[in-house]
Each structure stands twice: as C-alpha cells, then as structure tokens.
Amino acid sequence: SALLRGWLSGNVADLYHVAEPQGLPEEFKNDGRVRWQEKPENLPAPDIAVLAVKPQTMEDACSALRPSLSPGTLVLSIAAGQTLESFERRFGARQPVIRAMPNTPAAIGKGITVAIANTMVTAEQKKRAAQLLEAAGAVEWIGDEDLMDAVTAVSGSGPAYVFLMIEALAQAGKSAGLPPALAERLARATVIGAAALAETEPGTDAALLRKNVTSPGGTTEAALKILMAEKGLASLMTEAVQAATARGRELR
After folding, report:
1. pLDDT tens digits, residue range 4-19?
2. What's the whole-model pTM score?
3. Which of 51, 69, 100, 161 is 20 to 30 A from residue 235's alpha carbon, by CA?
4. CA–CA gap between residue 6 and residue 80 (Å, rounded)
5. Which residues contact 241 (CB under 8 A, 6 or more apart)?
6. Banded pLDDT at 248 (limits 50, 70, 90)
7. What is the SS3 assignment for 19?
8. How many CA atoms lie within 13 A of 51 on its CB side?
C-alpha cells in the first residue's frame, strides 16, 4: 500500500493490477488506475511484476503469477531472504529479476531501499525499477547479493531498533521520576529531532554529531560512559545485527 500510494501520487505508471486476497484498501477503490483481483491468476502480462509478499507465501504467489509473465516482464521482489537464484529457478534463468529490500518508513516516503539486479535486467528496466522504489524514499544499488542479509539486518529491521530505543528512553525517564506521558513525549520527540538533524547534515559523521552534543564533564558524557562501555550499546547492536543477518540466511 505504501508503494502504491507513492506510485499513484507520482504518476509512475498508467495502470496497476493488484492481486491481494484481503481486498483492496479503501483509499484505492475509486482510483481508475487500480484494478483488483483476489489472486494473481490470468493477469495481462505486466511490464513489471512486484512481489511484495511474506517469504513464507512466496512459492504460492510465484506459482500463481508464472502463467501471466512474458519473457520481458521484470520481476521486482520485496521479500527477505528470497535470492535472485530462487526466482530464476521459479521463472527461468532468462527472466529479468530485481531483488529489493525497503524498510517501513517507506510508508511516509522516508524509507531507504537497497536493490540488486540479475544479468538479464536492462538499463531501462533498472531505471524504471528505481522510479518505483524512489516513490518510497532513497535507493542504493549493490553488486554483491551476499550483502543483502546484512542490509536487511541494518535497514530492513532497523526501524524496530529505533522504536525500541524510544521505549527504553521513555522507561528510563519514568524511572528517573518523570510522569509517564511526559517521558514518552520527550523520548519520541528527541529521537525524531535527532534524526531530522542528521538528515540536514548528510556530510557530517554521526560520531561528530554525537561529539557536538557532548560537553566535557557534562551530563551527556556521564551517560555515554555507560552506553559506550565495552558491553554497551555498540556491542549489543553488533550482536543484534549479526543475529538478524544469520536469520536472513536461514530464510533463503
């Protein structure tokens, strides 16, 4: 839905066929460019087929979609752990395939997507795929598919880590005596504001942004001595990303 919303507002294409068992969301029902059906069967051959389904249901989705694909249809996958080779096996080695991993801020156009194409994708198809993905935010391309599990662990799962930080910061504020509602508002606004500041200074290292907030001998430095200890935040984040990366490999 987030991607389709962006495509419609940006007039990226003239017609969208949506196969979704749960039905078409209300916001799209009166848009003549969107046509819904329950299953991806008997579709007219699309220029681009976007597979935005859970990895566990990908096999069934591909089986239903296969008869509708033409040799030139670009398959654009948005699913963790689903490799280019797995789609070439399902659709044939000569099917153009792009594997992409966006994250949930795509819902408000603030996402970031990392993508990789197989050798059958043309320059024009890659350009069209970029247009589709940019409707949800920034796009980065990689040439080594083995990096995709780490990408998923960092940016795909990353929003959950940030939300957890808001939870933890709010809880810490409550423990320090703040009223719960105020602690929640302060934690949320602080993370949002810090992220916005980082966005306005893309050329500044995060380490320097951190140092700019930290006065020698001050309150921030006292907190950072805890967070930056040997078993502190950096160590925990490394373990977390390693665990998510390993799980991504298991989903292949």
Report:
1. 888 898 888 899 999 9
2. 0.86
3. 100
4. 22
5. 150, 153, 154
6. confident
7. strand
8. 31
